[in-house]
Amino acid sequence: MNKILVTGGAGFIGSKVAANLIEEGYEVHTIDNLSTGQENNLPNGIKFYKGDCSDEKLTNKLLKKNQFDSVLHIAGQSSGEISFEDPEKDLRDNVLSTLNLLKFAKENGCHKFIYASTMSVYGNVKNKIINEFDETKPLSMYAVGKLASENYLRIYHSLGIQTVSLRLFNVYGPGQNMQNLKQGMISIYLSQAINDNRIEVKGSPDRFRDFVYIDDVVDIFNFFNNQYKFDNYENLNVCTGIKTKVSHLLKTINSKIKSEVPISYIDGTPGDQFGIYGDNSKLLHLMKDFSFTTLDKGLDSFIKSLNI
Amino acid sequence: MNKILVTGGAGFIGSKVAANLIEEGYEVHTIDNLSTGQENNLPNGIKFYKGDCSDEKLTNKLLKKNQFDSVLHIAGQSSGEISFEDPEKDLRDNVLSTLNLLKFAKENGCHKFIYASTMSVYGNVKNKIINEFDETKPLSMYAVGKLASENYLRIYHSLGIQTVSLRLFNVYGPGQNMQNLKQGMISIYLSQAINDNRIEVKGSPDRFRDFVYIDDVVDIFNFFNNQYKFDNYENLNVCTGIKTKVSHLLKTINSKIKSEVPISYIDGTPGDQFGIYGDNSKLLHLMKDFSFTTLDKGLDSFIKSLNI
C-alpha cells in the first residue's frame, strides 16, 4: 500500500484531507502535536505520531521505517493574531517544521511535497483580484513564516523534490474548531451566534474575503497528490474568485440560523487584511472541470453539521 | 554617553561600523558568537558579549542593565553556499536572532533598528538594474532567511520601532576574512592569488556584481544611525549602480598584484546569482552628497592593506 505523510491530521483541514486519502486506499501517517488539533479528529485507520514536525528525532524514526510517496504539510499554527503573542514560537512551529520535513522528504526519496500556504502572504492588497504574481507583503508574523516556507519549497524543487504551495484563502466548513475564537472568520461568527446569541466583529463590515468550502480543499489536495505533475515550482491560489463582504456574510448567516442575532463591531486585530479575494485561473487551468461550492450551499452544510 | 548595540562586532562589517561609532563618541556594545568573526577584530573600547543573538537569556541580561538608542543588527551567517549545508542552523542564526533582537529593541525602548540585509533577496534577476520594488525570489536558504527578517522588521515598524533594511551588495575591503573561501568574491580571489598563485573561479566569467567598498558601508550605517528619520519602513539598496563583470574584476586584480596569476573556471555553487547590480537612487535621494569609492581605488586600498 502506498504511504503518504499528512501533517496536522488532528486539525481541521489535515483530518479531512487524510480521511479522503485513506478512502482512496493510501496508508496515511500523520504527525500532530495536538496544540490546536484534537485527537478525536484523527480519521480511522491513520497512523498517528504525537509530536512536532520540527522534531528531527521523530522524523528520523519515521524515515527509517517507511518510504513515503508524498508529504502533505498541513500542520501549523494558523492564526495571524496568535503569531504576535510569540513570534519565535510561530517561527519554530511554521518554518523550522517545514525545513525539517523538506529535508526528511529529500532523504526519504519522496516524489511530492504539497504545502498548505495562505493568502496571508499577500498582505495588504488593493481593491483588486489577487494573482499569484502579485507582490507579497506579509502583515503578520504568521504570514512572514508562511512566505519563508514557500521560498524554501521553491529552492527544494531545484534540489529535486517536486514541491507546490497551495495558497488557501478562507477555508470553512464542518469540522472547523468552534472553540477557537482566534481563527476562522465563519466559525468564529457561527460560534458566537450559537453560544452568545450575538456576533462581535473585530474590524469593519466592509472588509471582504474569498470563502472556500472544506470539501473543495480536500478535492484539490487530492488532485495535486494523484494527478498533478510538478514540472516547475508553483504557488497557487486556492479560492473561488468571489468577493464576499463581511456584512453580506453576516446577513447570510443571520438568515440561515434559527433566530437572527444582533451584531456589534470593535477594533480590528493587528496584521488583519482589510480585503482579499483571489484569481483562481491558474488553478482551474490545471483542474479543468472543477467547480467550487457556493457560499450558500457551503453555509447550509456547515450549519446543518452543527445540529442547531 | 549614548549606547548602541552593534551585533557581529567581531566580523568584517560589524567591527568597522562599531569602530566608527566608538570614534563618534558612542558607547558601543556587541554580541558575537565568534563563529565566523574573530576576537582580534573587536575594536578598542567595545563592550563584548560572547554568544548568539538568538539567545534570549543573554539579551535579557543586556536589557536589564542598559538603555540603547539603537540596534544595528549586522551579525549572521553570511554565505549562501554554507546555508545549504544546514538550513535549520541558518534559520536560527539569521532569523530567530533577528526576531529576538526586535523583541529586545521593543522592550528596551530603542528608537532605531538598522538591519544588514542583502542583495541576495532578489534571487535570479534579469539583465537589468535592480530596484527595491523588484520581485524577491531568493535562491539560497540564506536569502530566504534574510527576506523573512526584512519582513519582520516591516511589521515591527508598525509596532512602533523605527526599522530599516540595508540591502548590501558585494562588500569588500580591508578587514575582510582572507581565510574564509566561501564568502566574499574579491577576498576569495585575492586570497587564492596570494596563497596559491592562481585563481579558481566557481562559475562563469560573464557573471557580474556591484562591488561596494567597506568605508562607504560604514558611512551609510553612520548616516542611518545619526541622521535618518524613519517615517516608513524601507528596504534600501546599498550599491554603486555599476555593473562589474567577473572577468573585468579578475583582469583588474591581476593588474594590481605583484605578478599576474593564471585563472581557471569550475562549476558554480547552488543558489549563486548569475548577475546583479543595483539602482541606488533611493539611497542617494536620502544621502544627497554621498559618492561611492571606485573599484579601482577600493582595490588599491584593499591590496595595500594586505602587505603583499
Structure description:
Two copies of one chain form a homodimer. In chain A, strand 1 (3-7), helix 1 and strand 2 form a beta-alpha-beta unit. Chain A has two domains: 3-171 and 213-238, NAD(P)-binding Rossmann-like Domain (Rossmann fold), CATH 3.40.50.720; 172-210 and 241-279 and 293-305, UDP-galactose 4-epimerase, domain 1 (Alpha-Beta Complex), CATH 3.90.25.10. Chain A has a seven-stranded parallel β-sheet with strand order 3-2-1-4-5-6-11, with helices on both faces. In chain A, strands 7-10 form a two-stranded parallel ribbon. The mean pLDDT of chain A is 94. By secondary structure, chain A is of the alpha/beta class. Chain A is 39% helix and 19% strand. Chain A has helices spanning 12-23, 56-65, 80-83, 87-108, 141-158, 185-196, 214-226, 246-256, 281-286, 295-305; strands at residues 3-7, 27-32, 47-50, 68-73, 112-118, 162-168, 170-172, 199-202, 208-209, 211-213, 234-238, 244-245, 263-266. The termini of chain A are far apart. The A-B interface holds A 87-88, 91, 95-96, 99-100, 103, 135-141, 143-145, 147-148, 151-152, 154-155, 158-159, 270-271 and B 87-88, 91, 95-96, 99-100, 103, 135-141, 144-145, 147-148, 151-152, 154-155, 158-159, 270-271.
